[in-house]
Design brief:
By secondary structure, the chain is of the alpha+beta class. The protein folds into three domains: about 80 residues, no CATH class; about 110 residues, Tetrahydropterin Synthase, Chain A; about 60 residues. About 45% of the residues lie in helices and about 20% in strands. It contains eight helices and ten strands. The strands form three sheets. Strands 7, 8, 9 and 10 form a four-stranded antiparallel sheet that branches. It has a three-stranded antiparallel sheet with strand order 1-5-2. Helix 1 packs antiparallel against helix 2, helix 5 runs antiparallel to helix 6 and helix 7 runs antiparallel to helix 8. About 15% of the residues are buried.
Length: about 325
Amino acid sequence: MNTKQNAANQEVVIRAANGWLMLPLLAGLFLANIGLLIWSISDAAQHKEDPNVALVIASSLCLPVWIILLTGLYTLQPNEARVMLLFGKYKGTVRESGLHWGNPFYSNGPQPFDAAARASTSAAAKPGTAGAAPRRTQGRNKISLRARTLNGDRLKVNDKRGNPIEIAAVVVWRVEDTAQAMFDVDNYQNYITTQSESSLRHLASLYSYDDGEENEFTLRSNVEEVSQALRAELQERLSRAGVVVDEARLTHLAYAPEIAQAMLRRQQAEAVIAARLKIVHGAVSMVDMALKELAQKQVVQLDDERKAAMVSNLMVVLCGEAEVHPVVNTGTLYN
């Protein structure tokens, strides 16, 4: 089996002829050709002679030539490029915006099928659906160099601990190398969508949703670190398509519906335990302070049994959830 991979293509930037110079030149030649044809026929009619057959044939044959040459005119907007293909051979990429003229036989090949654009168009066509506006179709092997956003769908995956979660991300990307985007992958837009989903699934399996081990990154607590890891992995995968990832960030993170209620109760229990721990720690500190102050200022002398009773009463007052109504002792301390 042949496992050899084709070498990666590399973009070659070229300059095209100025369209503002070629337009009047070709238009003038086209009009002059028509005028010459008309003159040869009318001159022969005035002199009642046969027209110059060679001149008529030459003028007639040149007419489609000028028309074909005029089709070589094309425009490029800012941050737009055109990949030049001549009979299947890559000749270079034009990146300069404006009106240009190139070989009319440069391929105007059909654009690859854009599944994302069709999905957006279908969503926009459905009544009551807030779908994105359909993308403008680019011809003549034009590629947009603008930054574009891929808003990924919510994916249901398992985290590092096997808990089912829902996760989604947004990716900001742009085409850097038009030759790689055009020739190294079948459809670079579909390739980006598929690889983004694959990278997000792989990333989710490497981290726990929350409550990781000591010094362990989690999806919930370390969003910045996780986003950087996602961007690095996406850049590694998409570099073969000539794409640069400017930003990748999580936009949605939650437990799957089937375990969301159970995990919510667990989080609530952990919050209650943490709150109780803090209350007890504060109460012990206050009781210790009270006993030390009473002993230092010699307000009252308490034996161990009375200290234990005082500690118990203070802990009940300080740690109780309901309001405590103390009973005032009107007798002696030892009655």
